[in-house]
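Quick illustration for those who missed Monday's session on complexes.
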Amino acid sequence: MITLAAAQEQVWSGVTRLDPREVSCEAAAGLVLAADVVASENVPPFANTAVDGFAVRSADVAAAPTTLRVIGTLAAGDGTEWHVDAGQALRIMTGAPMPTGADAVVMVEDCETVGDQVTVRRSVLSGTAVRPVADDVRAGEAVFANGTVLNAAGAGVLASINARTVRVYPRAKVALLSTGDELVTDGSPLVRGQIRESNLTMLELLIAAAECEVTNYGVIKDDEAVLEQTLRDAAARHDAIVTSGGVSMGDFDVVKAVLSRIAEMQWMQMAIKPAKPFAFGILTSGNRRVPIFGLPGNPVSSMISFELLARPALRKMMGHTTNLVRPSVRAVADQALRRRPDGKVHFMRVFGHFAADGRLHVRDGGPQGSHQLAATAAANALAVVPDGNGIGAGEEVDVMLLA
Ligand code: AMP
Ligand code: MG
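Prediction with adenosine monophosphate bound:
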């Protein structure tokens, strides 16, 4: 058995970043920028008012209350050029361009109008409620550095500077397949020995949530020729392949037989529970080297090895250099998390919530068998329980947050 850290190192060092490409701003959200983004426009493009009110000369209202003459009204989007002289005010709506002459805006709540006169009840400092040109982004400035993970607000910023496309590391195209002649996907009644397939549904969602594009090849029959053809086809059209099942020790099923023959594989046994077996390899397709992540078939093992090994590798391929694995926090175990010594680190499914003390408190998510996906579904975190007899109630434990 090898440590999880050693397995992670082997897997992550075996994958490389995808070639950057230019995509639309909308398509870039969730992806990593592969170049600095330099703003070509100022935001805002002109000085404007932050409130509905009256544009004034601050010197005029220094001794408020003061009455000024209203020279007109300016709505947002109205480009009319106004000039405010001493003793004057311009009624102005949020987002409208500042008139020349004025240096502040008094909010409407502090004013009283009668006919074309406005009484300003409060004095304001120069610059009050004025948003200067380029207050948000200045033309020529690098608004995002290479390597930034673009979020929704970031895509909004790109729109605000009229950057229509950006250079990113693309979504990894991932082929997903499962093997196992016992697996039923079509809803037909189960005969003895059969179970319903569950991993493909779960993994397709996990892969998509990792910002990848997934092709679900379904359950491939335990037939070497069919499996080889499917894997070669998948490698020709994808950046990575995720398989479920058939990687356990001493398992001579077709996945192992075919992959051992056509790919450079590492069959790993990790000192963790669940998810001890894992396979990583490279399938060469033309001049491309396509990584294969061979997850174990037990649904909980499948999910946990995806989280610990495959997802971080896919993130690395998509240009991430930070947060490859999910964040962990030191939490309080509200219940004992019992286990037996077996030389392995246990990843126990737990439910955590942030309590009034500001700390994450976790409790057992339920039965911990590697086939018991229902208990995993009730969990939102993995408690990392070191070898030994477990964690007592009230003791601390490291917890990886899944959501
Ligand atoms: P394997 O890794 O192929 O030896 O499978 C280990 C266990 O997981 C067996 O009980 C399989 O029936 C089960 N299993 C394998 N693949 C799936 C799947 N796609 N969905 C649900 N259970 C699976
Ligand atoms: Mg199997």
